[in-house]
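Reviewer 2 asked us to include a model.

Predict the structure of this chain.
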Amino acid sequence: MRKKVVALIVLLAALAGAGAGLAYRHVDVARLLNRGDMVTADTRVIEERVYLCGDSATVRDGPAVDEMVGLDLAGLLERYPSAEGWSVTLNLPESLLITRHAQEFCPAHAPLRHLGLYGDYVAVYEGPLGHNERLWRVSETPAGLLPPDLQERLKQAMAFDRQVPAVKAELRQEFEFTNEDAAAAVLENLDELQD
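Predicted model (structure tokens):
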């Protein structure tokens, strides 16, 4: 019986640790609670922004600002809530990494558009191939009216991350555009196929 209780306690502790790991990339909670670590004036704070495309940018890298000094884990999580896209990686009192997960593409990828499928229709998505989260425009052209090889290539574009590097390069040349005007022109050409 005693072994079962100990096993249950170990299991619950592991689950609690796993849950904490989901909310933040890394938080050494036991160390934090035992030492009462807080942000000090000497804590190096790195704040980064991670975009939908996976690119990141360092927003700041330097000593803690006055409003952060004295904050512990609870204070940091209140100031940077995960519900608003923040994650906190602690190595207090030495350093603190604060990451904001943006709901937009980085400046280099924001103007890009790419062809793909939306249901049975040809569509244009915002951002680079491999990111089909933001639908920009849907064509009036059913994909079934296109030549079979083009239909297959559009299916490959929708599964871009599963393609080999050579196919990815070909798809980028065929279906990724540097601006909205180029993507719109391709859609208009496809729509003319119906007429």
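Residues 3-35 have pLDDT under 50 and may be disordered. The CA atoms of residues 49 and 95 lie 17 Å apart. We have added this to the supplementary material.
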